[in-house]
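Researcher:
Attend to token order:
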Amino acid sequence: MEKEFIPYQQALELKELGFNEKCAAHYLGEEDDDIEHKWEIYRNLSIDTNKCVQAPTYRQAFRFFREKYNLRYSIGNTNIAVCHIPINNYHTTQLLQDNVSYEDAELAVIKCFISNSKK
């Protein structure tokens, strides 16, 4: 199930970009902790969400970028991802090659979107 959630670092950057949806899971601990596997499903509704980072699913993250930044992507059979980035009323594309798997391509797209959203 862990594969459904974007990694901690990208979740943190999404939070900085304004992502604030309810998520089924969250990351615990501080940035310096070994948080790679420190996520859990929300079990306690009284959890202090200011002390954790929400763990969005890839679907939530892609929807966030589509709705807020008009960013779109596609991934082909060979795991090559194409990011469609709007710049001055035109769309440019970025090819993200050398992805070992479809999941690697999805993460590459998330990183591309984060990078382009910070500009």
